[in-house]
Every structure is written in C-alpha cells, then in structure tokens.
C-alpha cells in the first residue's frame, strides 16, 4: 500500500510538471506589475530614468517585474550585497532593464533584454565606490506559478534555471507599469576602466562626467546614497 501511494504522488507530480498552465496553480495571467516584499520596488518612470542613467531609490530593497500582453517586460531591482570576508564592506546594486519575454510549453520563461539596461554599483570599501555600467543579462526561469493569496491576491512565484525560488512577487496592478517600449539609453560613448582590485567596469561618458561633478561639489560626502 505504501508503494502504491508513493506511485500516485509521483504520477501527480509528473502531471503538474507537464501542465504548468493549469488553473489550480496559475489563477491569473502573468500580465501586469509585480513586486516583492514591501512592494516598494516598482518598474517604470518612478524607478529609473535611462536617458540620464539615474535612479529614484525606493524605501526598501526588492525586485519588481512588469509583463505586457504583447511580450514586453521591464525589470527593477534594488539589493544589498554582503561580504563574508569583510562584513563592514556592504555593497549595493540598483538595476533597470527591459526587453522581450517568451513563455515556453515546458513552463519556462526567457527574458531577453533590448540592450539599453544599466545598473549602479556601490561599495563602502572599493576605491571606485560608485559607478554606472551596462546591464543586459538574459534571464531564464525554469518555471513559474501564480497562486491566489487570501490576503494579497495573486502571487507570482518564479524559479531560476537551477530551480531555486525568487522572492514571491505580489501583483500591484493588472496593467504593466513600463517605460516606452524602445531603446531609451545612448550607448555610443563608453569607457572601460579597471579598479585597484582588478574589477573591470564599463561606464558611459555621461555617468563618468556626473560622478566627477558630484565629487567636486561634495568631495567629503561622496558615497552611500541610502
């Protein structure tokens, strides 16, 4: 009897794996605007200004995605980076990107950036402590599920290529909150630099000019924006 029950469980699991779009675990469309945690990180004009390579920092860290019904996505991410060797050397990144997404029959999602994404990287300890660089990473999610939370409503679960879960995302709106669906950042002029610790970065001239101006304006206050 025990072996029979185990076989039933395995069979049910196989059915779920083959039917990622079933109503029991995808209770609504993925189209809309989603955000994790305190839901402070939201894609769109309130988060990023690609033309100026600037960000408006949210009150809390997290990640947000918007998906449109015509295959466009936008990413907003704000997170801290721990340093196990030097606990005081906290780093942080703020990321914006957009492009096209595709849902595959096996339940996976691939996000392909348009090519104008960027991120701001900061570290309390690095010599080059604040810089903007290109961010155009293709993302693969092996699977996804949307459940209905009794308190928060639709909740999106994304699982990375290795099966590890992303923080649950709560739907803020059924409409995608996005910047225009076109290239929004000039990548024509770039400078490659190497920091003292061997980190190779790509900066745009606009970002480098802004950094120099801020250093001249407040040389003793440069650094952590949050």
Automatic annotation (TrEMBL):
Membrane topology: Single-pass type I membrane protein
Secretion signal, residue range per the UniProt entry: 1-17
UniProt keyword terms in alphabetical order: Endoplasmic reticulum, Membrane, Signal, Transmembrane, Transmembrane helix
GO biological process: 'de novo' protein folding
Entries under Pfam families matching the protein: Rot1 (PF10681)
Record flagged with keyword Ribosomal protein: no
Coiled-coil regions listed in the entry: none
UniProt GO MF annotations: unfolded protein binding
Annotated localization: Endoplasmic reticulum membrane
Keyword RNA-binding attributed: no
GO CC aspect terms: endoplasmic reticulum membrane
Family: Belongs to the ROT1 family.
PANTHER family, A to Z: PROTEIN ROT1
Protein name in the entry: Protein ROT1
Organism in which the protein naturally occurs: Mycena rosella (Pink bonnet)
Lineage summary: Eukaryota, Fungi, Dikarya, Basidiomycota, Agaricomycotina
């Amino acid at each position: 009897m025990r072996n029979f029950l185990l076989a039933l469980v395995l069979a049910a699991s196989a059915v779920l794996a083959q039917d990622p779009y079933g109503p029991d675990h995808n209770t609504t469309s993925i189209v809309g605007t989603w955000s994790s945690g305190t839901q402070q990180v939201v894609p769109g004009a309130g988060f990023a200004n690609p033309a100026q390579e600037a960000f408006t920092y949210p009150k809390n860290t997290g990640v947000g995605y918007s998906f449109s019904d015509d295959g466009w996505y936008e990413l907003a991410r704000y997170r801290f980076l721990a340093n196990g060797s030097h606990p005081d050397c906290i780093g942080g990144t703020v990321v914006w990107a957009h492009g096209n997404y595709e849902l595959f029959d096996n339940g996976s999602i691939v996000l392909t950036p348009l090519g104008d994404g960027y991120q701001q990287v900061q570290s309390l300890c690095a010599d080059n402590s604040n810089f903007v660089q290109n961010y155009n990473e293709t993302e693969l999610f092996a699977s996804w599920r949307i459940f209905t939370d009794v308190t928060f409503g639709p909740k999106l679960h994304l699982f990375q290529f290795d099966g590890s879960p992303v923080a649950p995302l709560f739907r803020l709106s059924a409409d995608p909150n996005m910047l225009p669906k076109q290239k929004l950042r000039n990548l024509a002029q770039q400078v490659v630099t190497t920091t003292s610790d061997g980190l190779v970065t790509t900066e745009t001239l606009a970002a480098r000019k802004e950094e120099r101006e801020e250093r001249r304006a407040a040389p003793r206050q440069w650094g952590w924006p949050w």
